[in-house]
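Annotated sample (chain length 608).
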Amino acid sequence: MPAFTEKTRKYEQDKTAINGKLLYYAFVAGGNQILQHQAEINRINVFPVSDKDTGTNLAATIRSVVDTIKPHKSYKTTVNNIAEAALTGARGNSGVIFAQFLHGLSCETLNKPHINITEFAHSVSNAIPYIYKAISNPVEGTMLTVIRDWADFINSKKERLHDFKQVMIESLQVLEKSLAETTFKLKELGKSGFVDAGAKGFVVFIKGIVEFIQKLNIRSLKVDAQTSISLVHTENISESDIPFRYCTEAILKNLTVKDTDVQRLLSDSGNSVVVAGSESTCRIHVHTNNPTQLFQELKGMVTITFQKVDDMVRQQETIFKRKWNIALVTDSTCDLSQELIDKYQVNVVPLNINFGNNHFLDKVTIQPEQFYDMLETEAEFPNTSQINEQAFTNLYSHLASHYDAIIAIHLTGKFSGTYNNSVKAGQRIAKEFNKPIQVIDSNNLSGSLGLLVLKAAQYIEAGENFDSIVSKIKADVAQSFIFVSVRDLKYMIKGGRVSKPKGVIAGLFGLNPVISMDENGKSMLFGNTFSQKSSLKKIFSHIEKMCGQKTVWNYIILHAHNPEGAAEAEEQMKQLTGKSSVSVVDISPVIGMHAGIGAVAVSLLLNN
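Output written by the structure step:
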């Protein structure tokens, strides 16, 4: 703090100087204002989609910077760090546009430890083309216009004024006027009577900066890098058609094509296209109906290092079309048909799948059919990573804004940290919103997890209360089972589940293992046979014994690119249980990568 005080005194003596620490704390001050006003910004969000999350997205973008960087005395170093952190953490259309402005500012800043007003004005003005270049269809009367009007004013004063503080104070009048005019420049805003939400966010940001440079009170800035924000949502939203379901974002590196080619590809896939950053690292934003196809086309052109996809239809249902007052959450290892997931409005959070340096979201940007093709053709064996706590915090804060309670059921905690991260996020949001959130470890996965989620959904549909549902599902966990018939051991060997020497020996003997889960949520070898036909016979023989003791509530047949084997398995189960399966589905890639192509599995849930 003393070092910055010394720099502040120097700044007060030379009012044209802007150093790195002044820039850092000014950014934090502006960012704090966005964090405090995010609910208000959400409320007025009607363009380009009335999903009421512009404030949330700007807040998340700001938090990415505050959590990542530290003060530095050099202006150039600080602006570079801010731009990089913003681009990495940008969220939503407005967040990506704001990050692109900062990227342009960074690129157009001279390599100096401090700059004067003239240099600052040049960098601000020269950053504007970066924004317009990034957007496939720039629309005036939005955040773009307000940032440009502000930059034009700053640039117009560079030769006449020599007091940075005074220039910033005067710029507020220009910002307020430009913001007010957005209501009349854009038809969608004129209908609502609101100003543009993204533009409002930028004005709030600059106001925070002006307030700081007037007082230069660093102690008033509460910067806590360990505190992650909860996303604030609002009930005040108008229902509108959503032509493209998925708000899709990614960070792309090492482009082998021009960014204009990426922009063209995104435009062919949907709307609201932004390509921010440079050809070495860029962040994309697009609303599309088919993120899987989009990323299959992109993976040959770039390295995909991060992806985020929000289901705007599910978000809209949460706000207007909730069928019940208890929300249901699971992860993408839950193998249940999309028809049932949509019917019961289940919120599914995807795990991460990585092929080398390329990152995908399970069942969102990569579906089983693409996954199994890549499993055969890609040089590197895939790996998975857990869902982080922030992803659950974002979801739970959104759901808690609209539902009375939340129940989440996840894959076994023995396989992934997903369950623990969900627990931590649930505890935090339950406390903040004073609403019950229960996270349940299924001690299982795949179809068994799907059956538990389905049963919870039907309890909710029947109108049972929160405590009763939680109690019953916890009891049902012990009655859920899965048996996986592995046809080819090479995938388990590649994935490290079976050592290479043991795999070679098993291969010589032609062994086909049957994998199951024990009562503690750990995988176990249920048995070995000499063919998949024999292993399935062993599975059905065991299920028949189980049926002699308890009745089967329902079952799911799963397969890894083996529909014929799945059909035979379902026929066997019909004979044993007298009922058809809930679903016959391609097993989750997260599970299938180890079971391997050709695997067939049976999941069942017994009645207590």
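Annotation: The chain has 24 helices and 19 strands.
Annotation: The chain has four domains: 2-219, 242-311+359-370, 322-351+386-477, 480-606.
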